[in-house]
Amino acid sequence: MKKLLTSIPFSVLDLATVIAGKTPADTFKNSLNLAQHAEEWGYNRYWLAEHHNMISVASSATSVVIGHIAAGTKSIRVGSGGIMLPNHSPLVIAEQFGTLESLFPGRIDLGLGRAPGTDQLTAMAIRGERMNAANSFPQDVLKLQAYFSAENSTSSVRAIPGEGLDIPIWILGSSTDSARLAAALGLPYAFASHFAPAQFLTAINIYRQNFKPSDHLKEPYVLACVNVVAAETDAEANKLVTSLYQLFRGIVTGKRSLLQPPVETMDGIWTEYEEEQAGQMLACTFTGNKETLSHDLQQFLDQTQVDELMVTSHIFDHQARLRSYQILSEVFKGI
């Protein structure tokens, strides 16, 4: 049976982007404003991602920002996309998210990633002697599940708050390794196709083929994150998306900067090599007006059969960003 855009949940990934000329304080105000509008427009969840030592990303203290967003909204689910578990002890994350769930019951998601969310030098500063913690990621996920379980009440180490709370755990991925883990544990799977699309189709196929039902989930559930820039016209959207292109040029060249204003053309800004490299990372990027996006996103859904779409939008002007998410909500609602 064909899935329609109008039949699946749609959500927001906020990378808490710091805009040129602004500060992280401005970013957090804009994030809350976006979350409040997203709730009003029918978005299902609002996730924030853990990154470190990146001047354009302000969500390094992810749990704190999640609390800020949840406190300023009423019903939208709020969570991590994701917490990089090897950077933390499972007990501390159980306590943090147990606290969040206690404050905002029934609204908190815990997405877990294996990567450091930063460069190796910064990862060393975060992890110290635990630099190889990524190798124990599967075991640490199981520890986290144990801390949340009611059965852990007889253990000598307990997560208070956290114990006995129903906090959905997601496995995040940008490769096939995470797909196998999510399948083996019977957990929902969120793929970072917004910057690492190369193994996307292979990974979700592995996940679906190897999925083992669990107490948490009876059938495989795939969420895909994509880049979307919506506007009144295709031409306007194609201009707005140049801020994203400039951001990814910085990733390719290693010269990161704050999110820059859009430009009329990228000609003369990036080289052919930089354009090609950025283009590979941005293969799951959709720009245009309502009609264009309705067509292109439905094609993506036809190809992937994902269960939920999560959207991130690097747009320089906050009002244009709000309008982009509003237009997109109308696409999903078939308005």
From TrEMBL:
Family: To bacterial alkanal monooxygenase alpha and beta chains.
UniProt organism field: Pedobacter steynii
Protein's UniProt name: Luciferase-like monooxygenase
Gene Ontology, cellular component aspect: cytosol
NCBIfam families: oxido_grp_1
GO molecular function, one term: oxidoreductase activity, acting on paired donors, with incorporation or reduction of molecular oxygen
Residues covered by the Luciferase-like domain: 10-247
Listed InterPro entries: Bact_Lucif_Oxidored, CmoO-like, Luciferase-like_dom, Luciferase-like_sf
Pfam families: Bac_luciferase
